[in-house]
Design brief:
- The protein is mainly alpha-helical and 74 residues long.
- The chain has a domain at 1-40.
- The protein is 80% helix and 0% strand.
- The protein has one helix and no strands.
- The chain starts with a helix and ends in a 14-residue tail after the last helix.
Length: 74
């Protein structure tokens, strides 16, 4: 009976250690995901800023028809 008890105790100890390591791994992965989301949010914000600047540049470069500037030699 003692052998069964010792085997069960060893098995439970082994499972508890595995759970502890898994908890640590999950916490590390969670921190990594949080950091990546923050990086992604910053990148998306920057992309939106650049798109807005590009749109402004494209609008400011549109000239109405007939509004051509004469070449410099005139």
């Amino acid at each position: 009976m003692a052998d069964r008890h010792d085997a069960a105790t060893a098995r439970i100890d082994n499972l508890e250690m595995r759970i502890a390591y898994q908890d640590e791994a999950i916490d590390a992965l969670n921190k990594t995901v949080i950091e990546q989301w923050a990086t992604l949010d910053r990148a998306l914000g920057r992309i939106k800023q650049l798109e807005a600047r590009l749109q402004e540049e494209q609008v400011s470069n549109i000239r109405p028809p007939g509004d051509e500037t004469p070449p410099p030699h005139y």
